[in-house]
Amino acid sequence: MARPRTVSDEEILAAVTRVVGRTGPGRLTLAAVAEEAGIAPATLVQRFGSKRALLLGLHKGDAQAVRERLREAGEEHGPVLETLVTNLIALAAPVAEPVAFSNHLAVLHQDLSDPEFHAQARAHARAMREEIEDLLRQAVAAGELRRVDLAQLARSVQTTYNGALITWAVHREAPLESWLRRELDALLSPWRADGA
User: What is the pTM of this model?
Assistant: First the structure.
């Protein structure tokens, strides 16, 4: 009978995210991930096989993880637009330091140059935009947001989020959380319903 797993795949993939933040994908090693996850390197090889498979495994879970994260605080029944902004800021937590952001940009390079990784990156981006649009739809229904072209506003929110990450890393004039909140609030402000 097989022994139960004491460290889940999700915990291993979280360890991969932390190691990528420190080293980038090029210098990531299975040994470093195994140490971060608190498992034997052989266990990591048995479960994922290779560094490439491990990085693809990280990407495969990304689309579902972004959906879950963007929905998370909405279950607390707070203002929908605040949920949207807060959850987008939470998604950026792994890159809240310039070096980690730079290392994660190296992942983007891989995503854009390798077709298999690119397919995963597109799925992640699509999931993010769909969840943003759903939260915007909820904001309209809750009276927080005026009627607007939701698909276009969702694209603008996603573009502002990604652009704000880059401009924050260049300027470094405020903590990432403050920078993102300011940029997202500025985008959404003209569309807020009176008094929202």
Answer: 0.85
